[in-house]
């Protein structure tokens, strides 16, 4: 029972870490967009490339701050790579819908696909380069 509790806590820490960095990225993108007057890129492929790059930078920063994996079990880390991006993508799409209800314009990161992509790249880099 103690092992299950420990794995659940480790997965939650990893999930909230990714959510934290994703929201930081979103606020940074919004701030830059408002300050420069730049609208959404017209090309979704260009936006994907930008979010992959941003996720790589965010995960590298997170590895500098927290180089060790929170999840000790290899199998649980694989499960985290599957479950966490889905959960983060769902939360980001929920955020996008809430912003629309408030009359605000969501950015692409406020959708399931882009939120999932960001979290997947973030998680893969932490998976590959984190200390076991």
Label this structure with key terms:
mainly alpha
Describe what you observe in this structure.
The model has no long low-confidence stretch (mean pLDDT 83). The two termini are 23 Å apart. The protein has 132 residues and is mostly helical. The chain has helices at 2-36, 44-65, 74-101, 112-129.
Cα(first) to Cα(last) distance is 23 Å
| Beta-strand proportion | under 5%
Instruction: Write the element-wise H/E pattern from the N-terminal end onward.
Output: HHHH
Largest sheet descriptor:
none
Global geometry: globular
Counting H and I runs of at least 4 residues, what is the number of helices?
4
The residue fraction in helices comes out at: over 70%
Radius of gyration: 15 Å
Poorly predicted sequence stretches spanning 5 or more consecutive residues = none
Regarding quaternary structure, what we see is single chain
Mean pLDDT: 83
Record the SSE blueprint.
Layout: H1 2-36, H2 44-65, H3 74-101, H4 112-129
Structure in a nutshell:
The chain has helices at residues 2-36, 44-65, 74-101, 112-129. It is mainly alpha-helical and 132 residues long.
């Amino acid at each position: 029972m103690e092992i299950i509790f420990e794995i659940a806590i480790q997965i939650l820490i990893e999930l909230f870490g990714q959510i934290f960095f994703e929201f930081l990225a979103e606020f940074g993108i919004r701030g830059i967009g408002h300050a420069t007057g730049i609208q959404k890129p017209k090309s979704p492929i260009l936006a994907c490339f930008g979010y992959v790059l941003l996720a790589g930078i965010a995960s590298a920063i997170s590895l500098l701050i927290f180089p060790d994996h929170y999840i000790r079990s290899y199998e649980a880390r694989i499960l985290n790579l599957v479950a966490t991006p889905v959960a983060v993508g769902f939360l980001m799409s929920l955020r996008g819908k809430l912003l629309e209800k408030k009359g605000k314009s969501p950015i692409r990161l406020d959708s399931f696909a882009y939120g999932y992509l960001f979290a997947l790249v973030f998680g893969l880099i932490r998976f590959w380069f984190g200390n076991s």
